[in-house]
Amino acid sequence: MKKILILSVILLISVIANSQIIKAELTATGLTCSMCSKATYKQLTSIPEVEKVEPDLNNTAFILFFKNGSPVNISDLKNKVEEAGFSIGELLVVFNFKNQQAENNSTFTLDNMTYTFMDTKAGILSGEVKVKILDKGYVVEKEYKKLSKMINQYPSYASVSNNLYHIKTF
Q: In this structure, how many other beta carbons lie within 10 angstroms of the beta carbon of residue 141?
């Protein structure tokens, strides 16, 4: 029995030690009043993986904190903002990495979603790292059109998939 308990603890620690999403900073577009912000806030707090949402009304932004170890689906954030009647202007996500290789066009998979690095300085990522989601619906249209011109350099950017995201580190 003692061996099973120790093995269970080791497995739990190994799951936690992998990269995971800790929090996100979401800027919504189209918010014009406190009722708009409240509707968006209510939608975001309804996501089961969200532990807490802190609104930043001056910047029409929301900081989302996720439950430890919970798988985060990026498209859920977009869907909830759209259900409130608005769109995402910018989405910054904080990953907790453990020796993740980062270079342009390299990918990693987390919770059945693939993330591809774009316009990123090569290196090894460890600890909390903030990245920007660059796909359509997660950036303003002007920025998306600019990024679309880089399709020769980043061929996967032309792909539209709910499980493929393009990210840039800061």
A: 12
